[in-house]
Structure formats: structure tokens, C-alpha cells
Amino acid sequence: MGFILNLLQVLQIVSALGMIGLILVQHGKGADMGAAFGSGSSGSLFGASGGANFLSRTTAVLATVFFICTLGLAYFGNARPASGGGSVLETATPAAAPAATPASGEIPAPATTASGTAQIPTK
Prior knowledge:
The protein is elongated. 52% of the residues lie in helices and 0% in strands. The protein starts with a helix and ends in a 32-residue tail after the last helix. It is built from four helices and no strands. The protein has a domain at 2-25 and 45-77. The protein is mostly helical.
């Protein structure tokens, strides 16, 4: 189970970094308008409009991988082991009952319980 969680986390981080890089490389809609009036954008690596399809499709694939990894992490992160385990609250032992209060004039004995109410001094 630990291997699957580590693999999903690595895939999610790699896809997130890839999406960030691809989104920053892409041009906005306003950049296409400048190319129409001769700003020289047609001499790019992917041609006049070839890069838009490649970059947007790659971004969509990485977004899908990111979404699937997120769902997988949520599912496997909440999966309970079949034997034993359980919640911390289910396995906790109940606190001991507080000691009886001493008679008037006596000094109370120090509390030995782990509960927070036993450590509050009484008047």
C-alpha cells in the first residue's frame, strides 16, 4: 500500500510541475491577434498554429493524470487496514476515575491520571 501511495504522489507532483510549465509556455488569445497583423510569430518552433494544439492536448493529458492521482490518493489515503488498526479513538484506553477528594484541612495527593480535568487544582 505504501508503494502505491508513493507512486501516486510522485506522479501527481510530476504532472503538476509539467502543467505549470506548459501553461506558462502557452500564448494567450491576444498573442494570436498580433500574429495576424505580421508580428512574426509564424517562425516559431511549431509553426503558425501547430504549437497550440500540441501544448493544449499535452496540458489536458497532464490535467487528467493529475485528477486521477488526486482521486487515487484520496481513496488509498482513507482505506482502512483489514486486520486490527482502526481509529486512535477506538484503541484508546479510558482514563481512570479521579481520586476521592480529601477531607477538609488535608493536603490533596498529586493526581496520577492522564486526563486534563484531574490536573486542574480545586479550591
